[in-house]
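Review session, final week

We close the course with one last complete record, chosen because it touches almost every idea we covered. It is Cardiolipin synthase, a protein from Mesobacillus boroniphilus with 503 residues. Go through it on your own first, then we will talk.
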Amino acid sequence: MIKRRLEFIFVFILMACFYIVLFTGYSQNFKVSAILIYAVIIFISMYSLMLENRSAQHTLMWMYVMLLFPVGGYFFYLFSGQLYLKGYLYKSKRTRDRDQWEKLMRKEESRDLSFLIENQQCFAKYAKNASLTPITTASKAKILKNGEATFSELKKELREAKKFIHMEYYIFRSDRLGREVIDILVEKARQGVEVLFIFDAAGSMNIAAADLKNMHDAGIKAAPFSPLKYGFFNQKFNFRNHRKIVIIDGEIGFVGGLNVGVEYLGENDKIGFWRDTHMMLTGESVYTLHNVFLLDWEYISGEKVPEYHQAMKKPQEDDELDGAIQVVPSGPDTQQGIMSDFYYTMMSCATKSIWIATPYFVPDEAIRTALRVAAAKGIEVRIMVPEINDSYLTQYASRSYYSELLRNGAEIYSYKKGFLHQKVIIVDGNIASIGTANLDMRSFHLNFEVNVFLFGTSSIRDLVAHYEEDLEDSEKISAVQYHKRGLWERTKESFARLFSGAL
């Protein structure tokens, strides 16, 4: 706490020194003193950074940022570079969540996973021990392609809710689609259905006050996650809740890449067609997904998780076995980098193919190594990214990683039909991941995320078919053409890569 307060004092001192040197008529000696004070503060900050024992790459990157960008570099470091703060800021939530998961897991019987084949067993051995969430065998997953299929299914199930609707979104807009969903929630609340609604304070900052009042008047409990007005000086505003969860009556769950807004239906002229993947869960896995929501609700509201929500639906004798499913939350409320570890292990267990579709491809060193080695071994590695990204730095940082992958035999595809936003990984055609976590540092270290991992489920066939359809709307990047790109393109890529650890 003292260190963070001191860092904010440093910000104001640095700003004052910068202003004195460049914009005042003080004496030369006074300006030299200001420069010395500035240099001492930067040195102290760099020394403190060195003592954190991060990787040499990240330590040097943030040192360069503080040295080369006066004041702004320090400010950027303070709010984007201090990933270690996650351990302090969310310690209470992480401890409370872990206790709750351990308590709930003690109530559950472990499932027999002997039916999984070799590569699935390879991944399951890690997944079973790395996360406190169960691998369930009495669940089903239905793949929902794009916004039209997702929101038509979601609205239908919302209208049929009998007991409760629990909803959590990163972006929820007060546009036509958002108000359609709100109208359903209000109607169900007035019928006596319990409605709890979490929205991220940054992602949903434009949600209309009138819509929130309408929900409140109907008896809906709506609350923001990490309100911005409280997050500036404690730096929580940089850690956002990127989850998209809907639970209906404890029987049905929705999760995936789609937020709520008309652009996700492809109705934004600037963005155009929106390619995404969502899913609907039934069975045991809904219980796990629900608890991710409930623990978030307990954190922001202070309300204890109700006992009636704490029982997993047991498999029935007539339940048809359809592979296995695991719901895995990640972020500041779990161990650091767990989603990156899941992705890495998943790829390391591949024997035939690794197919990736992601809007933001900024992999860490472990994942780059897994992909590079897999491709060199002759495993089919395909990476699909959007032709045009909504982030300049991310777009060019992503391209900076192409060279080493193409050189080892990986295939990279540029999706041209519209904006590709789905977060899908398919390994050997029989293991898959769908969820909210991108393949970038922000999802690995800063955001609250949740993914669903599929082991041999029939729904993976739909993912494979959809991926093959997307390839028809993509252009394969030629290694020869890529290496012939101009100096200006390479410069932009290299510059963006410098900041890839903070994207």
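Two points worth writing down before the exam:
The mean pLDDT is 88.
The two ends are 26 Å apart (CA to CA).
Good luck, everyone.
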